[in-house]
C-alpha cells in the first residue's frame, strides 16, 4: 500500500488525475458516454466552461476544431495557445486500441505499475484475422492461431479496467462510431484511422501506444496546437458521386502530407447532403493526407444516426449544447478549400499512393498510357472506411441490376462487413445474399486485406496485376505483399461496378454492359437507405465488461512465448554527444510505416519486440543500390538484410542512424516503427520531414527525430559516412543541433538539424523513453 501511495504521489507531479473522476464530477447532465459505461458521463458542461474561458482570452470566433480541442485543455486559463506553435496539454475523454497495437500499449501500461486505467478505454480485436476462405472459417482459424494473444488482451483488459471486444465483433472504428463516438468527444486511438469518429462530430486522433498509456495513466496528453484547414462544401451529392469522392478529391489537392499538423474541418451547406456514415468515411481517409484529424459539425444527420444506434439521449443533450458543436460565424481557417458537390465526379486514386487522383471517366486512358494493367483481378469492398449499411446497400443496388441482366462479376469480389451489427443487419435485409449471388465472398468482420491480412492465391508474387478497393491506403505491397499489385481506392459502388465489368476502362456513368441475352444496358446510379428502416440487428454479443473486482485476475506472459514479450526499459542518455554514428540506411523516396515495420504476416509478432524487429525497414529502398532490404555492413563491407545489419551493429556496440526523405513515417500509427530502431541500437532518424504520429512515436521511445535545416543537405550525406550530433548537453526547444559529416576520405562538413522537442519531450530523451520518465516521477 505504501508503494502504491508513493506511485500516486509521484504521478501528481505529472498532473495525473484520479481514476474515473468523470463519474464523480458530473452530476448534472446524467447522460452516459455509452451503454457499456453507465457511470461515465458526457461533460458538455465542462466543455462549455472551458470554451468560454478560451473565447474570452482569444477574443475571436472559434472554429469547431478549436472548440473541442480547447474545450479539453487541462488548464484553459493559463495554457499558451498558438496554432502550429505551442504544445497543448489535453484531457481526452477516452482511449480505444486495436489488438495489433493494444499488445504493446498494454505491455507498457503493465510496466507503469498502475492499478487501473484513468479514463474509459477499450480493446478491439480486428487486425489478426486473415482473409482466406470466408467469414466463419477465417474467424475460427484466427481464434485458434491467436489464442495466446487474445487471452492476454482479455485478461489484461479485465485486470486494468479496459473493455474488451472479442474477435468477430468488427473493425475498431465502426464499433466506436456505433457505440462510443459522440459530438464534442476528444478520443485518442492507437490506429491512424481513428479520425473516423469525426463523422459524429468528435475530435478523434490516431496516436501510438505510448500516448495511449499516458492518457490511461491520467497524465495530460500533449499535442502541438493544430492549424485548421477549412473545406467548404456547397451543392449536394447525387448520382454515382459518393462521400468517398470528397476525400479522394481532397487527397488529390493536399497530397499525402498537405494536412500535416492540421485538423481538416468540413463546413458549408453541402454538409447536409452527406449521411453520418458518409462523413465518417471522409474523416477516416483524412489520415492519408497527414491530417491530425478531420471533423464535421453536428447536424440532423448525426442526430438521426445517434437515435438509430440507441443513443437518442445523447442526441437530445447535443441539441442543448449545439452552439458549441458547430463553428462560430466568421471563424478563421489557415487554409480554405471549396468543393461544389454538384460538380464533383466519381474518383479513383492510385496506384501505389492514395493522393494520385483520377476521375473514374479518365483512369482507363491514363492506365493505358502508363502501362498499368487494365484487367481487374479482384474488387474488394468494406474496410473501416466504407463498410456502413449505406455502403453495402449502394453496392447491392449495383449488383442487383447486373443480376437482373444475367451478369456476375468478371473479377473476384470480396465483402468485409464493418461490424457484427452491420453483418447481421445486411444478412437480415438481403444485401449480403445479393452480393454473394453476384459472385462475392463475405469475409469476417475485420480489417482483412486492407491491412495485408489476405492469403491471396490467384497470383504469384511479382506478377503485375490490378485490384480496386474501397479501402483507404494503397501503398506498394500493402494489401497482398506483392510489389507489382496496382491497387486503386474508390467508393464501394464504383468497385462493384468495375468488378462486374472487369476493367479499369469501364465508366458506369456513360458505358454500357452486355446482358446474358446479348442486349446492352447501362447501370443506373445506385440508391439506398442510409440507415435500416427497422432497427439494427446487433447480432452476437461480443463484448466483455471489465469486472468490478479484478484483484484476483492474473495476466501471464510466458518467458518462452514467441508472440508476447515483457518489455525491458531502454537505456538512459549518457549525457554526451552522439559520436561517430554509422548510417544503417539512407532511404530513397517514400518510406511509410509499412516500409519501416511491415504488417501482414508480421502482425503475429506485434506483442514481441525482439521478433518483430526482424522486419525493420525491410521495405525501404536503399539509395546506395536501389534495392529493398539490402544494406552495406560498414565493418564487413558485405551487403545483407537491414535487421541483420542492425543486430550486428548492436552486438558490437556501434550506434547508428537512419537518413530519410520527405514525410518519413506516413501511414499507420504503429509505434513498432519507432520501437524497433530503438531496440536494435538506433539513436536518431534524420529526414527532410516527418509524418506527425511517427515523429511523436520516435520521441516517446527516446530516439531523436531530426530534420535538415536545409533539405538539400540530404544530398551531402552518403551511406559510407559517419555522423556526430553535437549540442545535446544544451538541448533546448527551438535550438538546432549540429551534425558533423565525416567522409571516408577524411574531409568533414557541418550542417544544422532542426527538431520540434519541447521541455517535456527532452526529458523523455534524457530518461531513455517517456515510460522511463513516468517511472522516475513515480519514484520521486
TrEMBL record:
> Quick check: keyword Plastid in the entry?
no
Role, per record: Catalyzes the isomerization of citrate to isocitrate via cis-aconitate.
Pathway(s) of this molecule: Carbohydrate metabolism; tricarboxylic acid cycle; isocitrate from oxaloacetate: step 2/2
Q: Which PANTHER family match?
A: ACONITATE HYDRATASE B, ACONITATE HYDRATASE, MITOCHONDRIAL
Q: SUPFAM superfamilies per the record? A: Aconitase iron-sulfur domain (SSF53732), LeuD/IlvD-like (SSF52016)
The UniProt annotation puts the region (Disordered) at: 523-560
Which keywords belong to this entry? 4Fe-4S, Iron, Iron-sulfur, Lyase, Metal-binding, Mitochondrion, Transit peptide, Tricarboxylic acid cycle
Would you say which domain of life the source belongs to? Eukaryota
- Locate the Aconitase/3-isopropylmalate dehydratase large subunit alpha/beta/alpha domain: which residues? 66-502
| Reaction(s) catalysed (UniProt annotation) | citrate = D-threo-isocitrate
Q: Which Pfam families match?
A: Aconitase, Aconitase_C
User: Where this protein primarily resides, as one coarse class?
Assistant: mitochondrion
Q: Where is the composition biased (Basic and acidic residues)?
A: 523-536
Q: Cross-referenced NCBIfam families, in alphabetical order?
A: aconitase_mito (TIGR01340), PRK07229.1 (NF005558)
What cofactor is this protein dependent on? Answer: [4Fe-4S] cluster
Q: Where is the Aconitase A/isopropylmalate dehydratase small subunit swivel domain?
A: 582-710
Question: Which InterPro entries has this protein been placed in?
Answer: Acnase/IPM_dHydase_lsu_aba_1/3 (IPR015931), Acoase/IPM_deHydtase_lsu_aba (IPR001030), Aconitase/3IPM_dehydase_swvl (IPR015928), Aconitase/IPM_isomerase (IPR050926), Aconitase_4Fe-4S_BS (IPR018136), Aconitase_4Fe-4S_dom (IPR036008), Aconitase_dom2 (IPR015932), Aconitase_mito-like (IPR006248)
Its name, as the record gives it, is Aconitate hydratase, mitochondrial
Where composition is biased (Polar residues), the residues are 550-560
* EC number(s) per entry: 4.2.1.3
PROSITE patterns per record: ACONITASE_1 (PS00450), ACONITASE_2 (PS01244)
What species does this protein belong to? Answer: Felis catus (Cat)
Amino acid at each position: 500500500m505504501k508503494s502504491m501511495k508513493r506511485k500516486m504521489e509521484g504521478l501528481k507531479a505529472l498532473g495525473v488525475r484520479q481514476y474515473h473522476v468523470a463519474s464523480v464530477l458530473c452530476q448534472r447532465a446524467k447522460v452516459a458516454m455509452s451503454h457499456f459505461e453507465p457511470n461515465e458521463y458526457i461533460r458538455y458542461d465542462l466543455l462549455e466552461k472551458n470554451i468560454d474561458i478560451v473565447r474570452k482570452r482569444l477574443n475571436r470566433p472559434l472554429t469547431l476544431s478549436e472548440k473541442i480541442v480547447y474545450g479539453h485543455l487541462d488548464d484553459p486559463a493559463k495554457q499558451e495557445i498558438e496554432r502550429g506553435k505551442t504544445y497543448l496539454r489535453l484531457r481526452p475523454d477516452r482511449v480505444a486500441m486495436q489488438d495489433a497495437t493494444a499488445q504493446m500499449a498494454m505491455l507498457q501500461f503493465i510496466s507503469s505499475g498502475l492499478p487501473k486505467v484513468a479514463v474509459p478505454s477499450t480493446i478491439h480485436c480486428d487486425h489478426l484475422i486473415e482473409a482466406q476462405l470466408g467469414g466463419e472459417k477465417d474467424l475460427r482459424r484466427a481464434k485458434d492461431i491467436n489464442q495466446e494473444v487474445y487471452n492476454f488482451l482479455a485478461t489484461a483488459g479485465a485486470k486494468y479496467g479496459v473493455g474488451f471486444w472479442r474477435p468477430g465483433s468488427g473493425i475498431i472504428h465502426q464499433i466506436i462510431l456505433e457505440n462510443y463516438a459522440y459530438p464534442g468527444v476528444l478520443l485518442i486511438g492507437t490506429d491512424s484511422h481513428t479520425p473516423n469518429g469525426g463523422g459524429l462530430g468528435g475530435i478523434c486522433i490516431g496516436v501510438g501506444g505510448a500516448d495511449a498509456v499516458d492518457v490511461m495513466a491520467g497524465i495530460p496528453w500533449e499535442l502541438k496546437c493544430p492549424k485548421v484547414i477549412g473545406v467548404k462544401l456547397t451543392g449536394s451529392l447525387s448520382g454515382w458521386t459518393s462521400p468517398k469522392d470528397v476525400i479522394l478529391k481532397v487527397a488529390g489537392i493536399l497530397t499525402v502530407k498537405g494536412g500535416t499538423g492540421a485538423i481538416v474541418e468540413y463546413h458549408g451547406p453541402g454538409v447536409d447532403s452527406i449521411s453520418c456514415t458518409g462523413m465518417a468515411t471522409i474523416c477516416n481517409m483524412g489520415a492519408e493526407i497527414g491530417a491530425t484529424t478531420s471533423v464535421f459539425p453536428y447536424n440532423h444527420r448525426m442526430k438521426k444516426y445517434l437515435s438509430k444506434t440507441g443513443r437518442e439521449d445523447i442526441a437530445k443533450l447535443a441539441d442543448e449544447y449545439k452552439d458549441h458543436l458547430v463553428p462560430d460565424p466568421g471563424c478563421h481557417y489557415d487554409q480554405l478549400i471549396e468543393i461544389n458537390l454538384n460538380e464533383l465526379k466519381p474518383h479513383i486514386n492510385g496506384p501505389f499512393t492514395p493522393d494520385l487522383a483520377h476521375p473514374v471517366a479518365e483512369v482507363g486512358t491514363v492506365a493505358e498510357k502508363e502501362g498499368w494493367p487494365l484487367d481487374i483481378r479482384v474488387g474488394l469492398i468494406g474496410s473501416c472506411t466504407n463498410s456502413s449499411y449505406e455502403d453495402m446497400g449502394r453496392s447491392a443496388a449495383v449488383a442487383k441490376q447486373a443480376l437482373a441482366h444475367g451478369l456476375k462479376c468478371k473479377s473476384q469480389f470480396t465483402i468485409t462487413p464493418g461490424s457484427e451489427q452491420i453483418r447481421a443487419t445486411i444478412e437480415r435485409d438481403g444485401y449480403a445474399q445479393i452480393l454473394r449471388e453476384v459472385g462475392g465472398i463475405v469475409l469476417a468482420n475485420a480489417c482483412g486485406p486492407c491491412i495485408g491480412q489476405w492469403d491471396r492465391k490467384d497470383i504469384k508474387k511479382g506478377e503485375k496485376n490490378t485490384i480496386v478497393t474501397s479501402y483507404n491506403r494503397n501503398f506498394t505491397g500493402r494489401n497482398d505483399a506483392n510489389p507489382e499489385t496496382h491497387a486503386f481506392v474508390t467508393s464501394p459502388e464504383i468497385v462493384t461496378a468495375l468488378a462486374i465489368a472487369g476493367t479499369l476502362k469501364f465508366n458506369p456513368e456513360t458505358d454500357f454492359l452486355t446482358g446474358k441475352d446479348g442486349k446492352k444496358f447501362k447501370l443506373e446510379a445506385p440508391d439506398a437507405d442510409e440507415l435500416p428502416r427497422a432497427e439494427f440487428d446487433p447480432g452476437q454479443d461480443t463484448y466483455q465488461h471489465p469486472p468490478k473486482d479484478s484483484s484476483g485476475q492474473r495476466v501471464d506472459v510466458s518467458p518462452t512465448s514467441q508472440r508476447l514479450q515483457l518489455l525491458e526499459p531502454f537505456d538512459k542518455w549518457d549525457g554526451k554527444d552522439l559520436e561517430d554514428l554509422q548510417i544503417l540506411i539512407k532511404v530513397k523516396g517514400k518510406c511509410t510505416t509499412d516500409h519501416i515495420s511491415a504488417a501482414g504476416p508480421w502482425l503475429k509478432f506485434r506483442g514481441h519486440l525482439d521478433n518483430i524487429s526482424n522486419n525493420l525497414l525491410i521495405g525501404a529502398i536503399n539509395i546506395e543500390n536501389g534495392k529493398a532490404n539490402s544494406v552495406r555492413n560498414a565493418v564487413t563491407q558485405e551487403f545483407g538484410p537491414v535487421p541483420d545489419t542492425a543486430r550486428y551493429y548492436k552486438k558490437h556496440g556501434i550506434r547508428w542512424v537512419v537518413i530519410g526523405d520527405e514525410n518519413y513515417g506516413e501511414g499507420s500509427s504503429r509505434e513498432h516503427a519507432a520501437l524497433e530502431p530503438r531496440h536494435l541500437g538506433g539513436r536518431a532518424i534524420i529526414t527532410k520531414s516527418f509524418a506527425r504520429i511517427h515523429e511523436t512515436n520516435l520521441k516517446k521511445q527516446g530516439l531523436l527525430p531530426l530534420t535538415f535545416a536545409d533539405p538539400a543537405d540530404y544530398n551531402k550525406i552518403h551511406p559510407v559516412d559517419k555522423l556526430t550530433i553535437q549540442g545535446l548537453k544544451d538541448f533546448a526547444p527551438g535550438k538546432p543541433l549540429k551534425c558533423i559529416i565525416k567522409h571516408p576520405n577524411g574531409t568533414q562538413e557541418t550542417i544544422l538539424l532542426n527538431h520540434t522537442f519541447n521541455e517535456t519531450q527532452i526529458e523523455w530523451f534524457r530518461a531513455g523513453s517517456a515510460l522511463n520518465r513516468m517511472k522516475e516521477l513515480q519514484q520521486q
